[in-house]
Amino acid sequence: MTTNQVQSPPIRVQGLEKSYKELRVLRGVDFDVARGSIFALLGSNGAGKTTVVKILSTLLKADAGTASVNGFDVATQPADVRESISLTGQFAAVDEILSGRENLVLVARLRHLKNPGTIADDLLERFSLTEAGARKVSTYSGGMRRRLDIAMSLIGNPPVIFLDEPTTGLDPQARIEVWQAVKELAGRGTTVLLTTQYLDEAEQLADRIAILHEGRIIVNGTLAELKQLLPPAKVEYVEKQPTLEDVFLTLVGTGGKDGKDSDAHDDATPARMSEEQR
Amino acid sequence: MSKHFFGDTAVLLGRSLRHITRSMDTIITTTIMPIAFMLLFVYVFGGAINSGSDSYVNYLLPGILLITIASGIAYTAFRLFLDMKGGIFERFQSMPIARSSVLWAHVLTSVIANLISLVVVVLVALLMGFRSSAGVLAWLAVAGILILFTLALTWIAVIPGLTAKSVDGASAFSYPLIFLPFISSAFVPTGTMPGPVRAFAENQPVTSIVNAIRNLFTQQPVGTDIWIALSWCVGILVVAYIFATVTYRRRIS
C-alpha cells in the first residue's frame, strides 16, 4: 500500500499509558512487532493485556504514548488502522442465531469484498467447518466457535491480527486446532499479536515473548533469550513420565473432529491441566 | 459520515431482521400483553366503563397500540445488550465500517418489528369488532404517528441497551412506559379523575397521541391534539437521540 508501512514495523507501541479512574493499568508500555512474526504478550489476569489490544484495535483511547499499526497512528488514523487489522476478542464474537456460513458472509460484506459467498465457502473448508456451515452457531462446540471466530478474522487478509486469549476455556484438542491455525497464519506472512496467560502457549507459538507486569513490559525477547535470564540448566536424570495431556490426547485421539494431523502433540509440551479450567 | 454508511446499515439490518424472522416468538410475546389487556378491558371492565363511545374496542385500540410499542422496544434494548455483551459489537467496531450503522441497524429493526406487532394487534382488534371509517390518508397519518412514537421510544431504549449491566436492567426501563397509558385517556375519559391525576393525565404525551389517533380513526377533526402529539414525539425523539448518541460515543471511544 503506502511506503511508510515498509519502513516502520507493523506494530509499534511507545510509552503507552492508560488508567481506569484511579487504577493505572498501563504505565508506559513499549514494544515493536516484526512483520510476519508471532508476538506473545504474556501476563496474569488483569495485567492489562486486553487493554493494549483494545487500544491497538481502536476500541479504546490511550491516555498517553503512541501506537501505530501497519504504519498508521491508532489515535489519528483509526479508519486506516481498522482497514489493516482484525480482532479476535476474548469471547468468540460470532452471531449465535446465524449459521457459520452466514457469519462469514456478513463479515465479507462488511469488508466490502466481492463474492462473499465464495470467500465464506473457502474459509469453511480451510477450517474444516464445511459440514457445519449451514447450522446455527448456537449448536457449535467451543472449539468450532473459536475456529469460526478466527476464520471471520481472516476475511480480507488483514496484514495484522490481534488474538486476545484465543484458547481460554477450550479443551486440549480445540486448543491444538487453534494453535495450528495461528501457525498457518504467520506462515502466510500475517503479523500476529497474541495475548495469553498460558506459558506453554507462548512457548509453542511465539517468535518473541514479552511479559507485561504491573503496567510495564518487564522482559521482551525470544524464548532462548528469556531462558538465559535464569541460571544455566543443570543436567538431571528424571524418569520420563507421560504428561496428563499426553494420556488424554492418546486416549481420545489427537486429530480432532476432522482428522487433521496435529504436530503440537509431538512437541509434547507439558501442559498443566489445571490451566484448562476457566 | 462514511461513504459506506447506507451499504453497511443495509447489511447489518439484514442481520438483525434474520434474528427476528428466526425467533418470531419475540413478536408474539410483544403482542401477548397488549392483546391480553384488550381482552380484559373489552370483555371484563369495558361494560362498566362509560367511554362516551359506541364501541369500547374502538375507544381502546389507540392506547393498546401505544402499549404494544412500549413493550416491543424492550426487545430493542435486549438485542443491543446481547451484541454489546457477546463481543460481536467490538468486532464490528474494529472493522472498517461506518460505526454509526451498527446502531441504525438496530433502530430500523425496531421499527420493522414493532410495525409487525402493531399489525397483529390491529388484526385481533378487528376480530373483536373494531371498525373504522377512516380513509387511506387517515390510516397513513395513524401509521406515521405510530412510527414516530416507535422511533422516539427506540432511541430511549438504545440508552439502557448500551449501558445495562444485566439483561433485566436492559429491559426494565420499559415497564413505566407500559404503565403510562393507564394514567391517560387511553382506557377511560380523563374527566372523572381527581384534580392532580387529571392534570397529569391530560398533560402527558400519551393522552394527546391517543386522542389524535382516536380522532383519525373516527374521522373527527383532530384539532390541536395532533400538533401536541407530534411535538411530544419529535421532542422525545430529539432528546433521546442526543443522549443515545452521546452514550454511544462514550461506549466506542
Task: Provide the fold topology.
The complex is a heterodimer of chains A (278) and B (253).
Chain A: H1 4-7, E1 11-20, E2 23-33, E3 38-42, H2 49-56, E4 64-69, E5 72-73, H3 78-84, E6 85-88, H4 100-110, H5 116-126, H6 142-154, E7 160-164, H7 172-187, E8 191-196, H8 199-205, E9 208-213, E10 216-221, H9 223-227, H10 244-252, H11 264-267
Parallel strand pairs in A: 3-8, 3-9, 6-7, 7-8
Antiparallel strand pairs in A: 1-2, 1-4, 4-5, 9-10
Helix pairs in contact in A: 4-5, 4-6, 6-7
Chain B: H1 5-22, H2 25-45, H3 56-86, H4 88-93, H5 100-127, H6 136-163, H7 167-172, H8 174-179, H9 195-203, H10 205-217, H11 225-252
Helix pairs in contact in B: 1-5, 2-3, 2-5, 3-5, 3-6, 3-10, 5-6, 6-10, 6-11, 10-11
Biased composition (Basic and acidic residues) (chain A): 257-278
Protein name (chain A): Glycosyl transferase family 8
Domain ABC transporter (chain A): 11-239
Return the CATH topology of chain A: Rossmann fold
Give the helices and strands of chain B as they follow along the chain: HHHHHHHHHHH
Given the structure, what is the number of helices of chain A? 11
Label the structural class of chain A: alpha/beta
- Principal-axis shape of chain B: elongated
Provide the domain count of chain A.
Answer: 1
Compute the average pLDDT of chain A. Answer: 83
Q: Quote the beta fraction of chain B.
A: under 5%
Radius of gyration of chain B (CA) equals 19 Å
CATH superfamily of chain A: P-loop containing nucleotide triphosphate hydrolases
Helix content of chain B: over 70%
Number of strands of chain A: 10
Strand order, sheet with most strands of chain A: 6-7-8-3-9-10
- Largest sheet features of chain A: 6 strands, mixed
Radius of gyration of chain A: 19 Å
Helix content of chain A: 25-40%
